[in-house]
Amino acid sequence: MKHTLSLRYLLCLFLLVVFYNCSPIEQFRYEKRQSVLIGSLRERLFFEYSSPLNDSMKIYMELELAKNPELQLPLEKIYSIEEKLKKEKPLLGCYYLMKKEFDGEKKLYIILDWNQNSGVIIRFFTDSPTLIKSLPDYSF
């Protein structure tokens, strides 16, 4: 009886771990070496776009997401990291998210960092033609 109970417990624990790791939850990670991360993305020839994360950019992202739901931008997470950066104001490092599958086989990296003069900066690195077409013509 005890042996069966422990096997059930282990099976439930295993399934919980497997399904948690397979869930679509996307997490931003903190990277202390921002320049190394950005340099490696530039070397891999990703299209780069950066802009202050101000009200205009937020409205633009929300409108683009409404027009193109396949973009699947995690706006709530972006806004929560923005608030965190405004409080912490770190001089080094950045938060980043990599979406492995975006627009088929394409990749998208979203980087948020703090700039003393401009506030929170959002950077997109992508090889997705859909996202490249949807970004504004100007970059920071």
Describe this structure in a few short sentences.
With 140 residues, the chain is α+β, with helices and mostly antiparallel strands.
Molecular structure report:
The structure is a single chain. With 140 residues, the protein is of the alpha+beta class. The chain has one domain (27-134). Helices cover 46% and strands 26% of the residues. It has helices at residues 2-22, 34-43, 55-67, 75-88, 129-134, and strands at residues 29-31, 47-52, 94-102, 106-115, 119-126. It has a five-stranded antiparallel sheet with strand order 1-3-4-5-2. It is globular and about 35 Å long.
Beta fraction: 25-35%
Q: Summarize the main sheet.
A: 5 strands, antiparallel
Count of all domains: 1
Identify the overall geometry: globular
State the end-to-end CA separation: 65 Å
Helix content: 40-55%
Tally of individual helices: 5
> Mind telling me the C-alpha Rg?
19 Å
Structural class based on helices, strands and sheet pairing: alpha+beta
Spell out the blueprint of helices and strands.
Layout: H1 2-22, E1 29-31, H2 34-43, E2 47-52, H3 55-67, H4 75-88, E3 94-102, E4 106-115, E5 119-126, H5 129-134
Antiparallel strand pairs: 1-3, 2-5, 3-4, 4-5
